[in-house]
Specification:
27% strand, alpha+beta, binds zinc ion, six-stranded antiparallel sheet, 328 residues
Length: 328
């Protein structure tokens, strides 16, 4: 006869065929009932052989198979309560628990907020449930979305993502230079800034012309911010380069051509240092905007706009034209 409710099976016995857990008509000594009650269970019935019982949890009502020996000598774990905790942890961490990984008990399948499924460590989800999803963009990264993002970043610099690092370093990827066909390893951090050179054709981020810019961007529900930075390709590509979410509207409000990436970097660093020193109250904590924009330098309150504009004006020479355009 099948069990009324599903029977949770201890991990070490999950490889056994289902029929071994058949009900057994044997007596149950009164003493066992008392032990079970004291440990939060009711003895449902004897099962499998003379050594096993099915225990009903007094908290959640789930049935779990256990050895009589376990009932007598330890606190038997309830499979139902354990699964409920896993579901709760997943919900708190912002994911949905799918199937368990039968091979690796520390892992399970979860559906991420982006809709993709990922195999994650249960312990990690439990930690996130306790601490809240603070680490990274949403508390975890989706390998599929992450790869897409890296691919978009690479394309902003004129490269194509080929695949994983040839040396197995998780912080590197193998990239193909569209211009010359050379492939090489690039650190993912450098994919954000575009600060890497091509070993094939010698194209160098440091010597290539660049542009210092000020960008205004509006984050839904959070407000407007300004960013000062430099880019080899300011304009449409910046949306990807900065990892801006699609619902963020960005507008380039000032641009100043720079003779090289190296000069642009030096000037940008100097301006940020000056702003931090003289207008610390206008610096937005980077963590506040982490889910919306991927930046390695400061972002400022909109009141910093005229100040930054004056700084860029001061750098301007008559032969450097100025432009304004929409990049969203
Ligand atoms: Zn339970
Ligand atoms: Zn995803
Ligand atoms: Zn090249």
């Amino acid at each position: 006869m099948p069990h009324q409710k599903p029977l949770y099976i201890p991990r070490r016995s999950r490889n056994l065929p289902a029929h071994v857990w058949r009900p057994l008509n044997r007596g149950i000594p009164e003493k066992w009932h008392a032990i079970a009650r004291a440990k939060g269970y009711r003895i449902h019935r004897r099962i499998r052989d003379r050594l096993h019982l099915s225990l009903e949890c007094l908290t959640c009502g789930a049935l779990t198979a256990h050895k009589i020996y376990t009932l007598r000598t330890a606190q038997p774990a309830c499979g139902g309560c354990r699964e409920a905790v896993m579901h709760q942890n997943a919900a708190k961490a912002g994911v949905v628990l799918g199937e368990r990984d039968a091979e690796h008990r520390h892992y399970a399948l979860y559906t991420l907020p982006c809709g993709h499924e990922a195999r994650l460590q249960r312990g990690r989800i439990a930690r996130l449930a306790k601490e809240g999803p603070a680490e990274g963009r949403d508390g975890f990264y989706c390998p599929i979305c992450h790869t897409k993002r890296l691919d978009r970043l690479a394309s902003t610099w004129g490269w194509t993502l080929i695949g994983a690092d040839t040396e197995g370093d998780l912080n590197y990827r193998l990239l193909w230079h569209d211009a010359c066909g050379h492939s090489q390893r690039v650190a993912t951090a450098n994919l954000v800034t575009g600060r890497y050179d091509c070993g094939g054709c010698g194209e160098s981020w440091a010597s290539a012309p660049s542009t210092l810019y000020m960008m205004r961007f509006a984050v839904p529900g959070l407000g407007t911010f300004v960013k000062l930075g430099y880019s080899r390709y300011p304009g449409r590509r910046m949306h990807h380069q900065l990892g801006l979410r699609d619902d963020v509207v960005a507008e380039l409000i000032d641009e100043l051509p720079m003779p090289s990436g190296q000069v642009a970097l030096r000037i940008e660093k100097g301006l940020h240092a000056q702003l931090r020193a003289e207008h610390a109250e206008k610096v937005i904590p980077r963590a506040d905007l982490a889910p919306w924009i991927n930046v390695t330098s400061e972002v400022y309150a909109p009141t910093a706009e005229p100040i930054i504009r004056r700084m860029i004006d001061a750098l301007e020479s008559p032969c450097w034209p100025r432009k304004t355009r929409l990049i969203s």
